[in-house]
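Working notes for the structural subgroup meeting. M.R. asked for a predicted model of this chain before we commit to crystallization trials. I am recording the input and output together here so anyone reviewing the notebook later can reproduce the run.

Input as submitted:
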Amino acid sequence: MVCQVTSHWGLLFDPCDLIVVIADASWDTNHPQCKRFEAIFKKCRPLSREPRLVTVVIQLLGDKEDKQVAAQIYKLLQSL
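Returned structure, recorded in C-alpha cell form:
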C-alpha cells in the first residue's frame, strides 16, 4: 500500500494527503495495523510541508527494500 501511494505522490494536492490516504485505507479495509497508521498520521501531520515527508513515511511503513532504497537515495542526495 505504501509503495502504491508514494509512487503517485506528485498527483496528490496536499502533502498531508499521503498519510490521510494510508490511514483511511487501513480503516476501510480493517487492516490489523490501522491504529498504528492513525497514530503515524497524527504524529506526522505537523510535517505536512516537510519536503522529506515521503522519506519519513517510507521509513515508518515501508518494507526492507523500500527502506534500503530510500536510504541510498538520501545518501546520494547528500553527496550532490
